[in-house]
């Protein structure tokens, strides 16, 4: 078994997808960029990693000539998880810190009703989103949430009259120019799964993992698959062709133990759609050595809950790397600790706890819990009395703060290196030395008497 691996996978697919041409514009008209037409990541307007550009004059009847540009005021559009290769969230959320603002736009997010009319009276559709946070982006109305933006100075191209005319198309006016997806393949999701079928972002170096691509019913085949490093030398380590969808999925399994990558590398799998001209990215999969427990006083303890990581020498590095029944998240609050989390209507909640240390022979321990809403770095947002992250459902009765008695983690007494054994070994060495010295002296005395007799 190879001990140290960072592995990920780059999938390159060529799928038939008939779509709008690339949207391109100058920086003064560019709101932000996305990596593809569907299931896309985003980046800032002033970077150039992605081909697809969200341009003001592709959604409104003229270019924007105002002087505000990308300075943030009341013109918020989205928030991103970073400046590039980023997930998105609606601007009213407080998880991400990279703000996207533009001109004189006023934006809201509405649920996708399926008829393309969500932005009537709210300007123009800009993109659709897979959720309110941690979202992938889609041109047109292909996903769950619709981002609508209205300009104070320029009317939208779409007039919502159910007639596809002028500069209207399925991207800026899906109500008037609906797209027939019964014969057009588009990708709905890219993800990593473990052997249990659970979506993962971290795997152990000896695990079997699966790269999963989910398309709509029109997707039939992929022309090419490549596994490649995405950090470092970009070495290609695997290639395959003519991969067929089974139902609406392509699943490619990999035994991570077969790959000789080095710690520090990162990998992802991505798909390219030829006619779309863009890339769609999976989340990173990080493969690392993951400790199964810790040793204290000659006793080996197994990691059973998130708080157990805090017993390790470097809890931040390993927080959440094991497959546990709860989601673990590192927070720098309260001196830094690994805490379990849950989602409350897309709000991230951290359960901060104080767990008693299990000593040798202990069977149970008490843990005190307190729940707080946290941001993407684990910082406590604070109690805004908004009704979120106020209850821990596992408390009896459910409450914001409670205590629980649980079993101590399974422990195994090490056969050799306990303090008692070390002391016993030292005593045996001393006894052995004294015995050797005693019998050595007797042997020398006998030798002297024999010489005198001779």
Protein described:
With about 450 residues, this protein is mainly beta. The chain folds into 4 domains: about 30-150, no CATH class; about 185-290, Macroglobulin (MG2) domain (Immunoglobulin-like, Sandwich); about 295-415, no CATH class; about 425-454. The chain has 2 helices and 27 strands. The chain has helices at about 315-320, 420-454, and strands at about 30-35, 40-45, 50-55, 75-80, 90, 100, 105-110, 125-130, 135-140, 145-150, 185-195, 200-205, 210-215, 220-230, 235-245, 250-255, 270-275, 280, 285-290, 295, 300, 325-330, 335-345, 345-355, 365-375, 400-405, 410-415. The strands form 9 sheets. The protein has a 5-stranded antiparallel beta sheet, with no helix packed on it.
Task: Based on the model shown, name its key terms.
454 residues; Immunoglobulin-like; 5-stranded antiparallel β-sheet; 4-stranded antiparallel β-sheet; 27 strands; 32% strand
Class by SSE composition: mainly beta
Number of strands: 27
Helix content: under 10%
Mean pLDDT: 79
Unreliable runs = 1-21, 273-277
Largest sheet: 5 strands, antiparallel
Helix count, per DSSP?
Answer: 2
Tally of domains: 4
Q: Based on Cα principal axes, name the global outline.
A: elongated
In the sheet with the most strands, the strands line up as 22-23-24-25-26
Oligomer: single chain
Distance between the termini: 68 Å
> What is the ordering of alpha helices and beta strands?
EEEEEEEEEEEEEEEEEEEEEHEEEEEEH
Cα-atom radius of gyration: 30 Å
